[in-house]
Design a protein that fits this description.
This protein is mostly beta strands. Strands 3, 4, 6, 7 and 8 form a five-stranded antiparallel sheet that branches. Strands 11, 12, 14, 15 and 16 form a five-stranded antiparallel sheet that branches. Strands 19, 20, 22, 23 and 24 form a five-stranded antiparallel sheet that branches. A hairpin with a 2-residue loop joins strand 14 and strand 15. The protein is elongated and about 95 Å long. InterPro entries: FN3_dom, FN3_sf, Ig-like_fold.
């Protein structure tokens, strides 16, 4: 008696390769435990056939611990579907086959390039990149890859972001402020990336002021809260202050309310309850939000 092998997963790309090999496919199976091989000369029979074919191609391997098999045929069309099943044999005869699974041969990388690429600096640390999807291409497109770098002479500064095929924009984050970046976009699949577009360059915005609002005063009359603070003046290397954002919430609740003002004053109406409130104030600028002030605790009598 021979135990039935279990096909665990299959793929058209070798697991230890960066790029797929044209005219090949790879599948993996769970080896039969040694105590269940029940005989000498144990091995596996791999049977496969292309979609639409009736007869099976059989390949025997004598490696009892094998869990992977690579089939190569240069005449295979990229991403061709196959049915595959695995059986066992030993000196006493042939055992049962596993269930039939579907796999695909290795594919080729996309040959087309995305069009209409443009980018803009969103904040001091982020660049928004947009492009048009590849609509007509003989190869499968799994997604898009955005590659970015600071300087062609410094390859260690290069980074990349990948998104799925149905996404045509992404924001590259964690960048340095007031810095020029080069970006390019390509399509990819399991075979690798296609041709890259000519690089475009974008300079991130200046960072927000590093100084938080200081010298904050407040008065509370009934439910009317008035706040005053010293205006923040940006340094030359920082983005100009365009306003302020106030975040306030009840001390015993997590819901945060946001209020913005163009001036260094704000008037708020607090709900009619006896809860205490905590307020933070931050600068607004093209570079993003600045650091928050020390917490302001409003005690309701």
């Amino acid at each position: 008696f021979l135990m039935q092998p279990l096909v665990m997963w299959v793929e058209g790309v070798e697991a230890d390769m960066n790029w797929s090999s044209h005219g090949s496919f790879v599948f993996h199976s769970q080896p039969v435990p040694e105590e269940l091989q029940n005989g000498e000369s144990f091995g596996y029979i791999i049977a496969f056939r292309a979609f639409g074919e009736v007869s099976w191609t059989h390949v025997a391997t004598s490696a009892p611990g094998a869990s992977r098999y690579v089939y190569r045929n240069d005449s295979l069309a990229p991403f061709s579907p196959f049915h595959v099943k695995v059986g066992t044999y030993n000196s006493k005869g042939q055992g049962p086959f596993s269930a039939v699974v579907t796999i695909y041969s290795a594919e080729t990388e996309p040959s087309g390039m995305p069009a209409g690429v443009w980018a803009r600096s969103a904040t001091a640390s982020g660049i928004e990149v947009n492009w048009q999807a590849l609509t007509i291409t003989p190869e499968r497109v799994l997604g898009y890859e955005v590659v970015y770098w600071e300087d062609d002479t410094k390859p260690e500064t290069m980074g990349k972001v990948r998104v799925p095929w149905n996404q045509t924009s992404v924001t590259v984050n964690n960048l340095a402020g007031n810095t020029q970046y080069f970006l390019t976009v390509s399509a990819f699949n399991t075979a690798g990336t296609g041709p890259f577009l000519p690089a475009i360059n974008v300079t991130t915005k200046k960072p927000p002021p590093a100084q938080p609002p200081l010298n904050i005063e407040w008065t509370l009359i009934g439910s009317q809260l008035s706040l005053y603070w010293e205006p923040v003046v940006a340094m030359e290397s920082e983005s100009e202050v365009t306003g302020y954002q106030l975040s306030f919430w009840r001390q015993r609740h997590k819901e945060v309310n946001i209020f913005t003002t163009a001036n260094s004053t704000a008037d708020l109406t607090l709900p009619e309850n006896n809860d205490d409130y905590i307020i933070h104030i931050q600068t607004l600028s093209e570079g993003g939000l600045g650091p928050a002030s020390d917490p302001i605790r409003i005690h309701r009598l």
